[in-house]
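Annex B. Sample input.
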Amino acid sequence: MTIIHRRDTLRADKIEQEKMFKNKKIHFEWDSVVDEFLLKNEPLELTGLRLRNVKTDELKDLRFDGVFVAVGYTPNTAIFRRYLNLDEKGYIITEKGCCKTNIEGIFAAGDVSNPQFHQAILAAGSGCLAALQAEQFLTD
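Annex B, continued. Sample output.
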């Protein structure tokens, strides 16, 4: 797992930070932001991310096949606007009562698709729903 963070320190609880720093499965990309999602078009598939160091402006491509975006209370969805239907405020539009987007096999959960409530427990619940729907999609 790689955590991409735009600063060189975390604001998380110190005990949680220590747990993350000790975990050999977690790697940090400090002072970095996602500059671009690297995609293959047919079928639409994530192949990686292009990161930009906010201090040096250096670009770095890394291979990834899955991403969770979590930044503040403004939906950080502009990178998806060419592919997914967004509302006027930038939230990803999903089918009523589920996490399906306008692209088959792509699901949205949490604060990027819920303009009304911004609470961790709701995001976790919709993340679970998206995971179950993705599992169903893969088995159908």
